[in-house]
Amino acid sequence: MAEIDSRRIILRDGRTLAYVERGDAAGLPIVYCHGVPSSRAEADVYGIAETLAALGVRLIVPDRPGIGLSDVQPNRTLADWADDVRDLASQLGIESFAVVGASGGAPYALACGTRLRDQVCAVGIIGGIAPPDAPGVLAAYRAPLRIMFRLGHRAPRVLKWLLRLNLRAVRRGGDRAGARMAAMAPEPDRTLLQRPDLQRGFMQCFIEACRRGTAGPTTDVGIVARPWGLDLASIEVPVLLWHGVRDGNVPVACGRYLAQAIPGCQAIFYSDDAHLSVPVNHCTEIFTAMIAACRRGQ
Q: In this prediction, what percent of the chain has a pLDDT beyond 90?
């Protein structure tokens, strides 16, 4: 797979943070928090660079610590990510920005919304997970994801080993691995995942996440699989949420919980969409709404 063009900064504690940018370099800055386990390669999965440029969006997608090209941060927490994002924005000369979290990236985006109130103009959640201790949420996941979260929380060494096996299977499986991924998805994601570009894109997200080994992705899962320690009711910035009712990866119960727990959350639930189809089918709508939310807050 092709190498991803990347940029790097040195954070205040000396760690390297890698990121990519897409869209309009002079547009509204939006920091995108990738899924779990995933990486900055998610910037290219949906093929939306031209759409972002046309809308006037500067999308910034960083690797979290231990992921891709970003250095490990020992004993990191969910709140630590907000500090890294603040540092990234400072070094890029950005005073105000929006944050979007997709899937397992949702808690990382919400951490920015709670801790960076002076800088974040809006938070967007696309098919986002809910806190694992929210009533009924963990039980709503399909067995493989429920097991992944439990292992991330209670048996990270086992999860690290399983991710290593999965990485080996993805690398060796080629097109067969993509076909298996498509077969496990509900419609309309199953049809979308028959596209070779999407198959390759998601496999690259995972392979890049494991560039330094599977310890980083395992930590990423473990952080979101434990109670988040975020006071969702205290979020003051606008929060916009989009979730597919047919989502087979992150059950719609997660989206409904977040919409209820976050004051003033503007939520849209798509009855005919699943996990992948929401960002694919509604990209323009999502980023147009994020722009409008930030402008209203100015």
A: 79
